[in-house]
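ok so heres the complex, two chains, lmk if somethin looks off
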Amino acid sequence: MVIDYKKELEQAAKTMILVHEPDTLIKMIARTIVQKVKVSHAGILLYNKEKNTYILTVSRGEPGLKIPAGFARMDLDNPLIQFFKERYDKRLLGDGVLVYEEAKKILKRQAIGEGIPELKKALYQLEIFGAAVCIPAYYRQELMGLLLLGNKKRGRFRREELDFFIALTSDVTMAIKNAQLFHELELELEKKHRLFIHTTIALATAIDAKDHYTHGHTARVTNLSLEIAKKLSQKYKKNLDEKFLEALHIASLLHDIGKIGIPESILNKEGPLNEEETKKMRQHPHLGAVILQPIPELKEAILGVKYHHERYDGSGYPEGLKAEAIPLIAAIISVADTFDALTTQRPYRAALSKEEAIEEIKRASGSQFDPEISQAIIDLYKEGKI
Amino acid sequence: MVIDYKKELEQAAKTMILVHEPDTLIKMIARTIVQKVKVSHAGILLYNKEKNTYILTVSRGEPGLKIPAGFARMDLDNPLIQFFKERYDKRLLGDGVLVYEEAKKILKRQAIGEGIPELKKALYQLEIFGAAVCIPAYYRQELMGLLLLGNKKRGRFRREELDFFIALTSDVTMAIKNAQLFHELELELEKKHRLFIHTTIALATAIDAKDHYTHGHTARVTNLSLEIAKKLSQKYKKNLDEKFLEALHIASLLHDIGKIGIPESILNKEGPLNEEETKKMRQHPHLGAVILQPIPELKEAILGVKYHHERYDGSGYPEGLKAEAIPLIAAIISVADTFDALTTQRPYRAALSKEEAIEEIKRASGSQFDPEISQAIIDLYKEGKI
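and the predicted structre for the whole thing:
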C-alpha cells in the first residue's frame, strides 16, 4: 500500500532534477498525494524571490476542502511562515514537521512557555487551511516552501508516511532550487548575448554614420540577409543552423567595419572616385577582416566581411573567388548589400525603386550573384516581404 | 546495519544535485561503499564525451584488490561496455545488474544461445577486475557509467542491497548529467562574455587607429583604470564589486568611442586646435554616450564615457560636474586617460617620463583630479606597478 505511491513519487522527484522546469511535476506530486495516499487535499507554497512572498503554487483536492485561491499567498509576517522561519521546530517539534494533533497535545500539557504563543498562532493557520500536517522545506537555512496536507480519508498519518513526505519535500526543494539556478544561468546567458549584439549594433551604427550616404544601411542589410537565409532554408532546404544564422547576423552588422580605415575624403566624396581612390575604397573588406581577425569565435563571420564584394563570375575583390568558392555567408551579404545600395540615393545617382533594383539583380544573376540567392531575394520581393 | 550506510549515501546523492561538481562526492560514495558495506573494492567508470571512452574516475579498496590505474579506461569495444550498451540485460538479466555468481549459473544451464558469447566475454572482464557485481547507469538510453563492486568481506550481496545500489547509481548518474549540463551552460556563458569583450576591443582598437597620435591608448587606459580600481578597493576599502569592475572595463575600452563623430581633420591636426575645433573635439564624451545610450545594460559604463573629461573643481566638460558629483567610474578613467596622454608623444609636445607625469597628477590633485584617485595612481607608481 505504502510502497505503491512511494515509488511513483520518488521517481517523480528524481525526474525533476533534469527537467529544470519543475512546475508540472510539482502538480503531479500534489495530485498523486491526494489520489494515492487518499488525503483530502494537498497544497504547496513556494517562496518567490522577486515578490518576497510564499505563493500557493499547487492546490489539489475536492472543492470546499482544498485551499481556496483566495489564500494564494503568504507574506513573511504570516504566523505559519514566521514559525518555520524562526525554526521553533528544534524546541517544540523533534523532526521539524508540524502535526496538528500532536501540537494540540503539547499545548494541553504546556499552556505557557517560550514559543507557545507562536505555536498557537501557527496552529490557527492550519485550522484555516484545514491542514493536518505542515512540512517545511529548507535550502541552506532558508525556508523554500511548505507542504500542507489535509486529513487522510481513513485513519491517521503513520510515522513512516511522515518520514517519507519529509524526504520527498526535501527532494522537491532541491530540484526546484536546481531549476532556479539553471534558469538564472540561462537568463544571464541571454542577457550577455543581447549585450553583445546591442553593443555591436551601436558601434556598427556609429561607423555607418561616418559614411554620409549610407544612413541605416547596416540595419537594412542585416534584416535582408537574415530574410534571404530563411528563404534559402525553406526553398532550397539548405541546412542553415543556429550557428550559421548567428554568424550571418554578426557579419551583416560588421560587413562595412573596414570603412573605418578609409579616409573621410574618399568616403564622402561627391562624384565618382578616381583610380587611386577606388583602390583605397576596395580595401575595406580586407581591413574589416583584419580588425576582427583576433577573435577566434568570429571565424565564420569574418568570411562574410572579407568576401562580400566577391562576384559569382570571379571578377570581384579582394581575391577574385568564383561561384562555390565564395563562402555562402558572403554571397548572401553581397546580394543584400547591393539591393540596399541600389535602392538608396548616392551622390552620383538617384535611388532605384525596389522593382528596378530586383530587375537589376535578376540581370546580374549568374554573373555578379549566385543564382539561388538572387532567386531567393526575387521570391521575397514577390511575396511582399521586402 | 543496512540503514546505517543507506542514509549517508542517499544524502550524498541528493547533495550532489546542487554541488554541480560531483567528483568529490563520487569519491566519497565509493569510499563509503568500501568502508560501510565492507566491500573489498569499488570502482566507478564514467563516460567521457570528448574522448568517447569510459574512464575509471574512482577506485577504492585495498591495494592488490582495487582496480589498478592500468585499467584507467575502457573503450567502446570493451566487451563489458558492449554488453551494457546493447542492453543484453533485458534477456539475460531481469533488473539490468550483472552479478557474477548468478551469471555463472545461467551459463551452466545454457551453454549456447543468443547473447551467451557476449555474456561470457563480459564475465571475463569482471574476473579481470575482481568484481562481483556490475551496475550500469543509463541516461535516456545512453550508457553513462558503470559501478563495479568487489566481493563483500562477509556473506553475499542481498537482493535488498543490490536494489539500493541500483537506485543509488541512478541518482548519481542524474546528478552527474545535471552537473554536465550546468557546466556546459557556464562554458557557453564564459564564451559569450569573451566574445563580447573581444569584439568590443577589436572595434575600439579600430576607432583608436583613426586618431594617429593615440596608438594603443585604449588598451593602456583600460589596464590602468582596472589597476587603480584594485588599489582603491584595497586601500580605501571601497566596495567595488564585480559589476562595477565590468562596467569600468567596458567604459575604459569605449571612453573615446565618440571620436568616431569628430572629423579626421581635427583628430589628426598637427599643432594646437583653434576655438571652433576645440569645441568640436570636446563633444566626443557626449557623442560616445549618445552612441551607447540605446543599450540599457551599459548604463553605468555610459557614465564613465560621458564624464571622463569632468574635473574635480567643476571646470571640466560636458557638464562641469564637481567633486563627488562626478561618477567614480568617470573619475578613475579621467586619471588613467591623462596619465597615458602625458606619457605619449603628441604633435605639439614631447612625451613626459612616468615620473614627470606622476608629478603633474600630484599637482593637479584636488583641482583636476579626485585626491583619493590621484593617490591611488601615485601608490601604483611607487610600487612599480605602472
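quick notes: Chain A has a mean pLDDT of 87. thats all i got rn
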